[in-house]
Write the structure tokens for this entry.
Amino acid sequence: MPDLWYLFQRLNWLSALDIALVALVFFILLQLVRGTQAVQLLRGVIILAVIILLLGNALKLPAFGWLVRNAIPALLVALPVIFQPELRRALERLGRTGTFLNSPARQSAAETVISETVAACQRLAERRHGALIILERETGLQDYIETGVRVNAEISAELLQTIFFPNTLLHDGAVIVRGERVVAAACILPLTSGFLADRRMGLRHRAAIGITEATDAIAVVVSEERGSVSIAHNGRMIRRLDAQRLDAVLRAFYQPQLRGPFPSWLRWLFRARPSSEPRAERPPAPSKPGEP
């Protein structure tokens, strides 16, 4: 207790700032790995470190302690290799500074993209024409654009339906949208290596998850087998969306473009990362007989 009181007496504003910065760094690191496969890896590393400390210090094992001390440099080199995908994604996320002010023109472009995409997906789903639409955000998709055929046309529901009409030359592959324009069609995307619970999901769904694992893009998938619409974002997929829910989910993911005067990285520092799936609205309670 006297030692604790002594530490409090030596605490000043500079020490408080130092502690707050260290806590902020750990908070940011935990937020970056939340919802990724790195959580399980980090948990395994922590459990292994605790076991090593208990065996090395509590039981006083000299030979084991020597082995641990000599293995620590190799472990420090191995950690960046193990967490390479998560570190790359974290650096990309920190680099997505965005713009400090969302201009009316940018908001109008986002509104146009959402409305035209929703209209096209609704009609494609009714006709059971498969489609894969990638909406570019902060991370550039130029490497994937170069694998397809340049279109460079203003986005419209009619254009998307024409591209994904069966047996056309451009229907097989992904369409990439940048701003208000369809930049390219028939683009080749990376496939996810993760396990898919539903084995009926085909290459379009795997490609949608794969591109959102590597970038911050939004992928909209129309299944030609079931006529259902799905959205992939941040490596997760929301399935079986009607036109109303599709519009709501797209607006939720386009929130940095549609709302708020601050860039996405600044808002991220002050609040936790939003979940990839929107919360389901609770239906209103049924009225009792005799109530209006």
Notes: The longest helix spans residues 104-127. The radius of gyration is 25 Å.
